[in-house]
Amino acid sequence: MTEPLGTHRFPYFSEEHEMLRSTIRRYIADKVLPHGDQWEEQGFVPREVLREMGSLGLLGMRYAPEHGGAGLDTLANAVLAEELGRSTYGGFAVTVLVHTDMASPHLYHAGSRAQLDRWMPDICAGRKITAVAMTEPDAGSDLASMRTTAKRASGGYVLNGAKMFITNGVHGDLYFVAAKAGETGRNHTLSMFAVEKGTPGFRVARPLKKTGWLSSDTAELVFEDCLVPEENLLGEEGRGFYALVKNLQNERIVLAAQSLGEAMKAIELTLDWVKQRRAFGASLWDKQTIRQRLSMRLGQVEAARALLFNTAWRDTQQENVVKEVSMLKALAGTLVNEVMYDCVQFHGGMGYMRETPVERMSRDARVQSIGGGATEVMLDEVAKRI
How many domains, in total, are found in the chain? Predict the structure, then answer.
């Protein structure tokens, strides 16, 4: 194919958004694709890569310039996420997106001026990598079941508990940890704390082995009488639930964008394959079933992208888009897996080989209907609003 799919402009985009897309695409071609397999083997993205991205202004696009950001909007981060998805390395993509859109926003939106001055410049520059510690062994989407506690003590809070499935958990520097302060058992007791690596009582229990996203490090974290200074409380005590819920919308937009970038790239790779692969005297593209199925998948992905960018634009207008974001996350997480199934199938035996990008992409995509809000949870969020 001579031109990538999904290159037409939406009316929401400015020249700045288009230039951003070109910058990200060039960076991925030059700096990611030649090394992605190595990162998959070692299980993490090297620090210098994130610092390079920070120097290009890609790690703080929605943050104010006074804190090291670029002062852009939700659309910009959706473009970033989509292009990261197109890289074919889901682990690389989520390493970046957890830092930019799932963890650091907790500091940016709830942090005091002193906290912002202390940490944001390094976050935007890629010198400090962030993680958000919300999920627990017995509590995922059900925040009310969270068991990690924060008890007031002289000079701060003592944290006790465990967190599971934490992306950037091994190689992170600054963790935004959700815990119950005060009486346990209700959402309004949740609070958010900034915990730096090396804090006594905080440790990485173990790195976790995953089916996909192999180039992202994922860990179980343990807090045992971990004393966190009072100045590390983010926002008000007991307001953590609202911060988590607010940021989940942002998280789900970028995960959907990543999913759709992955789906579009998989279709593109599969079109190239079926047009040159011959069977029974003709190319696979000449088989009506195959070309019609890929055409339908392309239409579905383009329709979902329209919902994505419309929702991202409405978010920039300060509209309430919880219903639309939930629809989008459910749709994209399901669709990317359906697309990957077909793309592996149409690659035939090569679709099952590690040397073929769609094999890796199909493994990476599986978690998109689970992470950031399972499809079933998302559909119930929609149902509550209709």
Answer: 3
- Residue in 40, 83, 136, 251 annotated catalytic: 251
Q: Are 168 and 117 in contact (CB under 8 A)?
A: no
Same domain, 265 and 368: yes
Q: Is 80 exposed, middle or buried (0-12, 13-18, 19+ CB in 10 A)?
A: buried
Q: CA–CA separation, 335 vs 304, rounded Å?
A: 9
Name the pairing type of β-strands 174-181 and 149-153.
Answer: parallel
Residue 52 has pLDDT above 60, yes or no: yes
pLDDT of residue 280: 86
For 311-334, write each residue's pLDDT tens digit: 999 999 999 999 999 999 999 999
Q: 105 and 22, same structural domain?
A: yes
C-beta atoms surrounding 200 within 10 Å = 9
Check whether residue 164 and residue 153 sit in a common domain.
Answer: yes
pLDDT score at 76? 95
Q: How far apart are CA 50 and CA 168, in angstroms?
A: 12
User: Which token pair is 299?
Assistant: 């239409």
Range of the domain at 279: 241-384
Would you call 251 a catalytic residue per the annotation? yes
Rounded to an integer, what distance in angstroms lies between the CA atom of residue 75 and that of residue 15?
12
Decide if 6 is inside a domain: no
Residue 273: the pLDDT is: 95
Instruction: State yes or no: pLDDT of 185 exceeds 60.
Output: no
* The token pair that represents 365 in the structure block: 């995509």
What is d(CA 60, CA 63) in angstroms, rounded to the nearest whole number?
Answer: 5
Angle of helix 90-97 relative to helix 240-276, nearest 10 degrees, comes to 160
CATH code, 204 = 2.40.110.10
The residue among 109, 128, 147 that closes a domain is 128
Residue 140 has a pLDDT of 65
Name the average pLDDT for the chain.
Answer: 92
In the chain, the amino acid numbered 211 is: T
Give the model's confidence band at 282: pLDDT under 50 very low, under 70 low, under 90 confident, else very high. confident
* Residues 369, 163, 98: CA angle, nearest 5 degrees: 50
CATH code of residue 119: 1.10.540.10
